[in-house]
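Escalation from tier 1.

The customer reports that the assembly of two entities below gives different C-alpha cells on two consecutive runs. Tier 1 could not reproduce it. I'm attaching the input and our single run for tier 2 to review.
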Amino acid sequence: MSVVLEAKRKRRGWRVPWNVALGLGLAAIVLAAALLSSWIAPFDPTRMAVGPRLAGPSAKFLFGTDEFGRDLFSRVLTGARLSLGIGFCAVVSGLAVGGLVGLVAAFAGRLIEAVLLRVIDVLYSFPDTLIALALVAFLGPGIVNATIAIAISLVPFYARVAYGLAAAERAKPYIEAARLAGINSGRLVRVHVMPNIGQSLIVMATLGFSSAILSAAGLSFLGLGVQPPSPEWGAILASGRNYITKAPWILIFPGLAICLTVLSFNLIGDSLRDLADPRRKRTS
Amino acid sequence: MIRLIAKRLTAAFATVLAVILLSGVLVHVVPGDPVTAMMAQSVTATPEAMDEMRSRLGLDLPVWMQVGRYALNALSGDLGTTIRGNEPVARLLLERLPNTFMLAVAGLGIALLLGIPLGFIAAVNRGTAADAAVMIVAVLGVSIPGFWLGLVLIQVFSLHLRWLPVAGTDFRNLILPAFTLGLTYCALVARMTRSALVEILAEDYIRTARARGLREHQVLIVHALRPALISIVTVVGLVFAYLMGGQVIVENVFSWNGIGRLAVQAMLQRDYPMIQGFIVIFATSVVVVSMSLDILYGILDPRMRQR
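Tier 1 run:
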C-alpha cells in the first residue's frame, strides 16, 4: 500500500481525487455528528413534546419534529452514533472471524481448504442483508442481536478476501523458504503472512462498512433491528412512514443521512481498493 | 454439454441440501427455548400447550434426528406447518412465489435496460464527463437503500402526483416497486457492463476491426458489445440473487404480496417453520435461476463447456 501511494505521489504530484475528497469530507461530518451528538443536539432525542407535533423545519427545529413532537435534528444526529457504532462493531468482528476462516482455508491443508471454500462460496452467493435478516429472525430483534447478525453476514465476504490475499502470498518464495526453515503454519501466518496482507485486509474492511450500515437500517426499518424509541435512521423511517404526506421531512432527513453515510464509505472504499490493487485501476 | 448440465445439477442439489440442513440447525441456535420464544406473544401459552407444541415440532427428539427429519421432509416437499393457523408452509410460500418472481423479473428487466446502455456510454466515452456522470449514478445507486427510494417514489408518484396506486398486486401496482428495484440494481449492471467493455475495447481484434475501416458503430456494437453481453449473462445470476434479497424489504414497503412480505411477517411473529421454509424456497429459487443461466451460458459459449 504505502509503496503504491509513494509511487503515485511521485508520478503526478500529491493531488487527492475528487471522489476521495468528497468521501472523506462526508465521513468526517458523519463521524463528527456521531461523536459530538450529545453536545450539539439541541434537545433530548427521545423526549416527547419538546415542540408541536409534525412541525416543519424552522430555526428552532432544524429538521422539523416527528409525530410525537420530538426534535428530528437531535434524533438524526444521535442516529449517526448508533449506525456508525453498529457498523464498526459488525465490521471488526466480521473481519476477525472472516479473516481467520480465510487464513485457515489457505494454510490448513487441501481437504480443509476445499470444504471451507465450498461453504464460503455457497454463503457468498446469498445477499448479506438476507443472511442478516434470517439470523435476526432466529436470534430475536434488538441492537445487540442485529449487530451479531450483520457481523456474521459479513464473514463470507471477508473470508473470501482474506483467502484470496493469503493464497497469493502462499505462492511466494519467501513462504517456501520459511517452511523449509521448519516454521509451523501458525507461526508462518502470524509472523510472515499477516504483516504482508494486513493493510489490504483493512482496506477491504471499509467496503464492508457501507453494507453493514445499509443492513442495519434495513433491519431496523422492518422492526427487526434497533427498536423504537431509539433514534436509529431505519427505525425513524419505519415509525414516521404513516405521516410522510403531512410531514415529508420525516422521510427526507433520516433517508439522506443513510445515503450520505453509505455514499461516503463507498467512495472511500472504492478508491482505496483501486490504490491497493493497481491491476484493477487499469481496467476500471 | 451433458457433463456440464450434470455437474451444475449436482452442485445445485448440494447447495439446496446444505441450505436445508443449515435452516434445520438454525432453530437450535436460538438462545433459550424456541417454544418459549415463539409463544411469548400468545395468550394460550399454558404449560400443556407448550408441551404439545414441542412434540408437534419434534423438539423433544435429539437435535441430529430433528434436523435429519426436517431435511427428509423438506426434500419430499413438506416444510412443516405454521405456528399460527397450522397451515402448510410450502403451500403458502408457493402460492406467493409467482408474485415475487413477477416483481423480480420486472425489476431485473429495468435494471438491465438502464444499466447496459449506461455502462456502454461510460465505456465508450471513457475518461470524459459522461463517464464520470455514469459512475456517479452508479455509486449513488449502491448507496441509496431500496426501502427509502421506495418511500420517496410513493411520496412523489402516488401521494403527490396521484399517478399510481400505493399498494396492491395488479399491473399498475407493479410499476413503482419494479422501478425501485430496477433503479437500485441498474448501478451494479452499469458497473459490470463498463468494466467488461473497457477490457474488450483494449483487445487486438477491436484494433483490427477499426483498421479494416469498419464504421465505428459497427465496431462497437458487433465486435465489442456482443461479447460483453455474453460476459454479462454470467453476472446476471448474481444480480438476480441480490435483487431478490433487496426485494424482501421492498415488498414490505409496497405491501406486495410476495414471499418477502410473508417472511418478514413470520419473522416479526417468530413463526420459525415459516422462516425456515422461506430460507429454503428463496435459496432454491436463486440456485435454480443461476444454474439455468450457467447452462445457458454453456450453450452460448462453447469454451465454457470445458470447465
